[in-house]
Amino acid sequence: MVRYDLAVLGAGVAGLAAGMYAARLNLKTVVLGRAGEGSAALDLGGTITLTDVVENYPGFIKLTGQELAEKLLEHVRSYPQVEIRTDWVQSLDRDKQCFFLHTDKEVLQASTVLFATKTKHRELQVPGHDEFRNKGVHYCALCDGPLYRGKSVAVVGGSDSAAKEALVLAEHAERVYLIARGKELRAEPINRSRVMAHPRITLLPATNVTAVLGEKKVTKVTLDVPFQGSSELPLNGIFVAIGVIPQSELARTLGVTVNTKGEILLDRNSRTNVPGVYAAGDVGDRTFKQAITGVAEGVLAAYSAFEDLHGDVVCACSDDEDHPAHHLPS
């Protein structure tokens, strides 16, 4: 059985940073990234790869999210102590000394575990959403925005993420409607100013989408507040940016404490309530979540694992090959 000092679940920026720093601390580390749907490629870089322009990462005035992820990946791969695998963990269990990670291929053994499992999109719960998914209903402007060159689209959401989605879409679409539930757009000041000044973006505040309509593809949505005298808004596409759901399910099976949002509760050094278990990035309960904060949390988690291993807070895995958890079920 393959044994590691630290297993990192998630290959986003937080997970990659943790892997890099764990290697610097001479911890034998594995970073486990989910294989992308319909692709053999790793889900490397996580959410940041869907960001068109990154302007708030120190050391880089401007670069794409994909470029930032590639730089982090290059850094991780420069350390031989880190292994990056496409396996994804299906379940976890532990004995007094060790964690056992059951993947779709084998069982891995680790002395400590870091959850950098990110989030998933919160879906729009209205009639027509499921019917027109990928037929006009999307969740990534960078991915699907070019399909709507010269057309009319809407972004549903009032956060900074929604504002940035609208700005990306405005590079392609003739008209972008930003449909926000609140009376004000809750974006960073610079992005709010860009949205409000953009000639192709129209803000619809205090408004909700009540249904998505169409035939083979989306043709319009209905609104609970009329716009220009009509409760129907003709559209070619709709992009949803109404928040995310932390992927903390596996952590909870180990007894890790989460808040009412499902975010993992962390101390200042990225430790959870379970010894030997850490978390970093969007899955954690930090108020302010950016690539730079996720990277910092990943580094803190790696250092905490190093401290705990060397301070006997957690024990290194044993060599007991007869432990029942060492074997995959038949």
What does this structure look like?
It is a single chain. By secondary structure, the chain is of the alpha/beta class. The chain folds into 2 domains: 3-120 and 244-326, 3-Layer(bba) Sandwich (FAD/NAD(P)-binding domain), CATH 3.50.50; 123-240, FAD/NAD(P)-binding domain (3-Layer(bba) Sandwich), CATH 3.50.50.60. The chain is 22% helix and 26% strand. It has 7 helices and 17 strands. It has helices at 13-24, 65-77, 141-144, 160-169, 189-197, 249-253, 291-310; strands at residues 3-9, 29-32, 82-85, 89-94, 99-103, 107-115, 119-121, 137-138, 152-156, 175-179, 201-204, 209-214, 218-227, 230-234, 237-240, 244-246, 277-279. Strands 1, 2, 3, 4, 5, 6 and 17 form a 7-stranded mixed beta sheet that branches. The protein has a 5-stranded parallel beta sheet with strand order 8-15-9-10-11. A 3-stranded antiparallel beta sheet has the order 12-13-14, with no helix packed on it. Helix 1 (13-24) packs parallel to helix 2 (65-77) and helix 1 (13-24) packs parallel to helix 7 (291-310). The relative contact order is 0.18.
